[in-house]
Amino acid sequence: MSEERASAWAKAEEHSPSTGRARCPFCGSTETELFSLFGQQLLTAQYYCNRCHTPFEYIKDDDVLEDAKAKLISPEE
Known about the structure:
Blueprint: H1 3-12, E1 32-36, E2 44-49, E3 55-59, H2 62-72
Antiparallel strand pairs: 1-2, 2-3
């Protein structure tokens, strides 16, 4: 893996502190949404980038579970 690709991969593993969303490893955008709680491995979740329209996997942590809870539970109107 090239150093540039490894750096992009490391950045993608982080949630943006301002929005709490996963950062896209392809374009760096935080305009992402949780697509599926289960990726190819049990420890990954699938996200979708709304900017470059690319799905990607993210290692699950507490932030992923919060994203899932927010998606499943909507405020009553």
